[in-house]
Amino acid sequence: MKPFKTGVTLSATVVLFYALCTLVWLALPESFMNFMNVLFHGLDFRRLQTREQLSWWSVIYPAFVFAVWFFAAGAFFAWLHNSLRGEK
Prior knowledge:
Elements: H1 3-27, H2 29-39, H3 56-85
């Protein structure tokens, strides 16, 4: 398993799903909130909603943070996997 490739793959996957999640929320906000509440065992995500307009920064900044964090997690996972198997 190649750490860099695994990191990039995981990072791209998470950012893609984050973008899709954002698009679904924009298109179907009520249905999306119902889905999120069911997915997380009844937590009420509506309480987190604000009346503020959605900005590009509020979408791009978390995507960037996810990209960096999940690249590191994926690279570490591959490195650890290789280390535990005795591979270089």
